[in-house]
Amino acid sequence: MTEPRRTYLPAAGHDWFLPLYDPLVKLLGGDSARRALLDQAAIRPGHRVLDLGCGTGSLVVLVKRLHPDVDVVGLDPDPKALARGKRKADRAAVSIQFDQGFSDALPYPDASFDRVVSSFMFHHLPPDERENTLREVRRVLKPGGALHLLDFGGPEASPNGFLAHLLHSSHRLRDNAEGRIVALMRQAGLADPKQVDRRAIRFLRIAYYQASVPASEASAAYPAHAAGPPAPA
Description:
The protein has a single domain (15-214), classed as Vaccinia Virus protein VP39 (Rossmann fold). Helices cover 32% and strands 23% of the residues. It has helices at residues 18-27, 30-41, 58-66, 79-92, 127-140, 161-166, 178-187, and strands at 48-52, 71-76, 97-100, 113-119, 141-152, 191-201, 204-212. The longest helix is centred in the middle third of the chain and has 14 residues, at 79-92. Mean pLDDT is 81; it is low at 156-166 and 219-233.
């Protein structure tokens, strides 16, 4: 019996909209929002960084440009978005590992990343995948490592109903309230979860979150999934 094929929400909500995704996010102020996320992440030389839900690769390319001496990995379930990310990395002449996979079943060993970052992805996840995703983040972070997450705010995130619908977020933002995300981080075993900033970009409100793994704790404190090799992109 073959395992049912998993589905996912594309970066732009619909495959046909993918070519317009990067220009739209740029127009809305996504570039400055991502830079602020990386400032908060305090990435250091020698770090290994995972971009969870890397989409078309904008954040991973920015990480590598700003920090050429770190090892950067981008993961996303969408092969079309990954193909765009690879082309973007080639144009920027930076070396990035792109893997196809799902955030709630990461194909990486325990304690293999110093930082996990994610931008405008968390609202894509169905409610039943959110805590599992955060548990997987907890598993792959090294002791002393940290998660830095950027996403749209809660149900009030956009006063423009059409724009929220266009960004496929209106019906998913109900679970993006500040307290809910922080509670999920805590339930997943991440330490000191908190919202660290909240701001507006164009017509949207966005929020930044972070949580960590204490340096004194080993990743083995949380049972690992049987992670296999990265899925082919």
